[in-house]
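Lecture 7 notes: from sequence to structure.
We start with the chain below.
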Amino acid sequence: MHTIKIKKKMEEFFLEDLGEVDISSQTIFGKEAKGEAVIIAKEDGIFSGAEIIKIGYSLFQTDLQINVKKKDGEQLKKGDIIAELYGPVSVILSGERVILNVLQRMCGIATLTNKAVRLLNSTHTRICDTRKTSPGFRMFEKYAVRCGGGFNHRFGLYDGVMIKDNHIAFAGSISNAVQKVRKQTGHMVKIEVEIETEAQLHEAIEARADVIMFDNRSPEEVARFAEITPKSIITEASGGIGLDNLPDFKNTNVDYISLGMLTHSYQSLDISLNVK
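Predicted structure tokens for the same chain:
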């Protein structure tokens, strides 16, 4: 994650919550009261979001001292201290909810991703995310996937071509769609084609797709399609895959398995800020 983008997003989140002033903290404590607090994990998981704590609180431009004790991707145990804070009580409390909201979601995604990676237990197939992210929160969610041991698919419509079923339907065929893209994009842009049948697979291979995604196929079909596909073409399986059946895809030899659930069906990790 880029520092400038983190600052911009955190500013946006704080402005939504603070408005003009934190009435509760300012009227009770003012600017002079100092105190200590810790951010702790209330359940096991994977940590993601060290920069959220550092950059988030730094936006208040105070002498708040921050000691983040956990690194991104590190295992969390219930009761672990994630960070120690010392400084203006009003700042600690004003930033608390927004920072915890972001941390809890990022750690939840990192934890779920790590569980998926361990369930698949493959030395070849990589787990990756999709574009099924929360609007405005994609950068954080995709970073959390990496903290959990997963990999990122494209970040948006701008950094890779993905020809899906509706593109194919409107274009008339896979070949037509790929050909039109090839004529208008440079050599740095990769083209992925989503297929459902063996006939479509052969057409995508003939069209020289860079990546072929097997959509909503059984483990047996994925294994057979991966065997047919030339090694020069990256393969991906997606659709209908969850934690319950993920291990069934271990020996399919597909290069990637993309899971939308990583960023749309996760559970936030329980994290709290306590006065020390």
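Points to note: DSSP finds ten helices and twelve strands in the chain. The two ends are 30 Å apart (CA to CA).
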